[in-house]
Amino acid sequence: AKNIVEEQMKTGEFYGRYIDDIFMTWNRSEEELKKLLEDLNTWHPNIKLDYKIGNSLPFLDVQFTNNNGTLLTSV
User: Fold this and answer.
1) Residues ≥6 apart with Cβ < 8 Å to 8
2) Which of 1, 23, 47, 57 has its CA 20 to 30 A from that of 13?
3) Burial of 10: CB neighbours in 10 Å, binned 0-12, 13-18, 19+
4) What values do phi and psi take at 45, rounded to 5?
5) Are the C-beta atoms of residues 56 and 64 closer than 8 Å to each other?
6) In the structure, what pLDDT confidence band is assigned to residue 1 with cuts at 50, 70 and 90?
7) Domain of life here (predicted)?
8) Phi and psi for 62 in degrees, rounded to 5?
9) In whole angstroms, how far apart are CA 8 and each of 12, 26, 44, 57?
10) What are the φ/ψ torsions at residue 30 (nearest 5 degrees)?
C-alpha cells in the first residue's frame, strides 16, 4: 500500500485513508485502475478490497465529485 501512496503523491493525485476506508483520485484509464485493484486483491488471501469507481462518491461523511477535473466536496 505504501507504493500506491508514493505513486499517488508523484502524480499529483489525492489519497485519503481512515481505518479501513480509502479514497483516491485517478486520471489514468479505468482499465489501469481495475488492473491495479485486482493486483492488490492478490496480496493477502484474507484481505479483499471492495471498490467503487465513479465521478461522484462518498468517503466518510463527505461527497466527492469530479466536475470536469475539479474535485468538489459537500457534506
Assistant:
1) 14, 15, 24, 25
2) 47
3) exposed
4) -65, -25
5) yes
6) low
7) Eukaryota
8) -120, 135
9) 6, 8, 22, 18
10) -65, -35
Cell (9 digits) for 62: 463527505
Q: What share of the chain is helix, strand, coil (3-state, %, to 5)?
A: 25, 30, 45
Count CB-CB contacts under 10 A for residue 34: 12
Please identify which residue in the block is written with the cell numbers 476506508: 21
The C-alpha cell 485517478 sits at 26
pLDDT of residue 12: 75
Q: Provide the grid cell at 11.
A: 502524480
Which sequence spans correspond to the domains of the chain? 2-74
| Pairwise CA distance, residues 70 & 31, whole Å | 22
Distance CA 5, CA 2 (A): 5
